[in-house]
Amino acid sequence: MPGEVLTATVTPFDADGAVDYERYRELCEYLVDNGSDGVVVSGTTGESPTLSDDERLGLLRTAIDAIGDRATVLAGTGTYSTAHSVHLTEQAHEAGAHGFLVVTPYYNKPPPRGIVAHFKAVAAASDRPVMVYNIPSRVVINIEPETMAELAEIPNVTAVKQSNPDLEQARRIVELGLDLYAGDDNLVLPFVEVGGEGGVCVQTHVVGPQVKEMTGRFRAGDLAGARRIDDELAPAYELIGVVTGPIQIKAALNMLGHEVGGLRLPLVEASEDEQAQIRSCLERLNLLAPAPV
């Protein structure tokens, strides 16, 4: 088990739009010092579609060097090409990744047997754990329970990042013996309540200690305390919904002084209205003082 709270990290860019590896090192260290049991490198939040293979590898090496001796480092290696996903997984394995986050192939809409063949090929590139990433809202197709059962038979497929709010499907993943992780921040507590391990989160860039405390209280039998924290995190869930990620979380981090830079097209900066909404969320989380009237 890679931990309860993992953060799908943003990729910092400098003023020229190049990857800022030193800032990324600082970000990984900050996250692990503030509630994260590990990080996911080059996931969607890391703007993986616009990163080169060399940049992905550089980010992974930076994370392993910074925190690999005290936290889990998962490499995002899934694409819509099986051959490319295998190549990225082989590179990440050689670099020392502890495991791999592999998204359902997107855009080309393979049938269930194609999904199974894809994951078998990627998993065969390493003997380390593979976390399946099921996110129907972005890839169009949902990995149905019957297909998930086939994936569970692959020896090193050990976990699922599930961005599907269907609690029955979540329970089925647990019943299959797979570690269940919430892929949407507001699902962490509901998934833990049905036997999940925790979440692969975006909000933990700014509220990591709170999310870690929430899962800890649940594990300690304090469900009421966990639910209280879940309620208190409502502005964080609202923040994530302001605009497409990682636009919103990069804006939040920059407001909080983390200086992670801008974004690569086709992603764009948060608008003035969106920034105002993000600031309001941070103020209600007591992370920013209210702006003077």
List the helices and strands and how they pair.
Blueprint: E1 5-8, H1 21-33, E2 38-41, H2 53-67, E3 72-76, H3 82-95, E4 99-103, H4 112-123, E5 130-134, H5 136-139, H6 145-151, E6 157-162, H7 167-175, E7 179-182, H8 188-193, E8 198-201, H9 204-219, H10 223-232, H11 234-240, H12 247-255, H13 272-284
Helix pairs in contact: 1-2, 2-3, 3-4, 9-10, 11-13, 12-13
Q: Tags for this entry?
A:
293 residues; 8 strands; alpha/beta; 13% strand; 46% helix
Q: Overall pLDDT, averaged?
A: 96
SSE order, one letter for each helix or strand: EHEHEHEHEHHEHEHEHHHHH
Category by helix and strand content: alpha/beta
Radius of gyration: 18 Å
Q: Largest beta sheet: what is the strand line-up?
A: 1-2-3-4-5-6-7-8
Assembly state (oligomeric): single chain
- Report the sheet-strand fraction: 5-15%
As a percent range, the share of helical residues equals 40-55%
